[in-house]
Design a protein that fits this description.
Largest sheet: 8 strands, antiparallel
Number of helices: 17
Radius of gyration: 27 Å
Strand content: 25-35%
CATH architecture of the largest domain: 2-Layer Sandwich
CATH superfamily of the largest domain: ATP-grasp fold, B domain
Number of domains: 6
Helix content: 25-40%
Structural class: alpha+beta
CATH class of the largest domain: Alpha Beta
Strand order of the largest sheet: 14-13-10-11-12-15-22-20
CATH topology of the largest domain: D-amino Acid Aminotransferase, Chain A, domain 1
Number of strands: 39
Length: about 650
Amino acid sequence: MFKKILIANRGEIACRIIKTAHKMGIRTVAVYSEADRDSLFVEMADEGVCIGPAASKESYLVIDKIIAACKKTGAEAVHPGYGFLSENAEFSRRLEEEGIVFIGPKHYSVGQMGDKIASKKLAKEAKVNTIPGYADAIDTAEQAVEIAKAIGYPVMIKASAGGGGKGLRVAFNDQECFEGFTSCRNEARTAFGDDRILIEKYVLEPRHIEIQVLGDAHGNVVYLHERECSIQRRHQKVIEEAPSPFLDPATRKAMGEQAVALAKAVNYQSAGTVEFVVGADRSFYFLEMNTRLQVEHPVTEMITGLDLVEQMIRVAAGEKLSFSQEDIPLKGWAMECRINAEDPFRGFLPSTGRLVKFQPPAGVDGQVRVDTGVYEGGEISMFYDSMIAKLITHGANRDQAIERMRDALNAFVIRGISSNIPFQAALMQHPRFVSGNFNTGFIAEEYPKGFDASMVPHDDPALFIAAAAALHRRFEDRDAQISGQMPGHERVVGDKYTVMRGDERSLVTVVPAPGGYDVKLGGETFAVRTDWKFGDTLMNGTLNGKPFTIQVARTGLRYRLSHNGTQAVLLVMSARWAELQALMPTKVPPDLSRFLLSPMPGLLREIAVREGQEVKAGEKLAVIEAMKMENVLKAEQDGKVKKIVATAGASLAVDEVIVEFE
């Protein structure tokens, strides 16, 4: 077994690999960019080597720097994690030539299966079901359009060397194909150093289901059941689960056997994933093979009891698999939510900055698991992927896994940046998701105009009113105790309040009771029992005996409460204050429609218009790159460009002016 391994990655996955290596008694080396100098994975590793500037093309993607770090530290093997160089055949080959073990498949397998074009040809030869498409590299956007028309829209445009949703678009017409090809090629060149693009038929109402395979150097290959990855936004996975609520045992077996056949065809030795698109009739077609560890591997670990990182290390060290196909259990159900630094209320734009508060839910062995690479006080950078944590739950069945995920999301506190937790929580409540009746178009179909918390109906609206009233009464009671009033002239705290949520006003009476308060609302009494303390971000308690966990933030007299995907801002006032509040004028926000503002911090890649140009609604104005993704900004209405304020290549802040219109 290895004595020391180097992790050629960063963030959450680097931390994940380090934990398993330490469990196995293996020392670890972290390589890091200048931007990651103070990161958690660097602290966790036994040694660290700085390999360059923040930009990945100058650090994490430079093979020579990784090899030099191995030689400097004496690392015998390299685990690439996912992304970066994990599916780079040249990297695997170079390590082998230097006598360093690549903890992953052999370079010839990476080359054959990591390349989406070559893998499709090999899949056909191995008699694996494939979907129609153009399996050669495409040179120009014009050629892409002609190919797409020949295949028939819609088509999927994707980078040959891609993964993780980077360099991938779906086009339904010529214009979308032309623009999608250009964006995919740019993203692929930036993220992977390989701008080859392929096009294939996009199956309508598809499900994305993948098979986890594991092979060793002795000819043994097994499949570790499937993962359902159909809940996606912009072709990036949002929720993953294992097993799939859609597959029956016969289809699971057929897909698993095809995945194994494909792996054996290329002498696959490590953990890998064969991805399929599955139709409504359970017909399935090969999409691609990811020759690496997947982001969503924890759900497979939950249902099988296997540590996939450990298995990869053992296989790389030459050990045989210690189990056969018949030995692999399928225990219960696992669910994973990707917690990303993005604002779901602003079109999921990237959110960067300082983690003022980072409080994951308490891990419960076998039930709740949090994989992360960040810490409270750390910084979320614009240079890398937006994922800051993975939240995984396990249950005896799917309903229990979902219920535990709901509770865990309610208890996951992030402050300082925006996160997609409200959206994840809303998905966990959605009837279609709960029923298992969904496909890869689910989010686009259910949220065509974006996500807003007001769209999420709460099953108990009185919870917010009662909780806000109880919280406010607790603040009032404390204020009365510390006000320093003279004996006999103490401040009397009243029982009656007005709670405003938007334009809705509710009259409540709040009376102290053992362990909390009784809140009278509309002729009904709500018993709020809680041990909440001042400064707590979570309010745990019961409402009429039913447990709840609410996230709490207070500004002045306003309370921002979050529960089950719903966010509510409530204003709690005395009766007199409510009378005065009704007389306050409404402040009209400034008109910013004449400006194109940067919706996120990022690099301004392109200005697509010029001064004096007439533009139409929907026309491309600019391109901003942030967190490894290109974001195209388009005109919301017809207009004329008065002034170009920003210049291409500039680093923009949120709401910085790019273009001014007449």
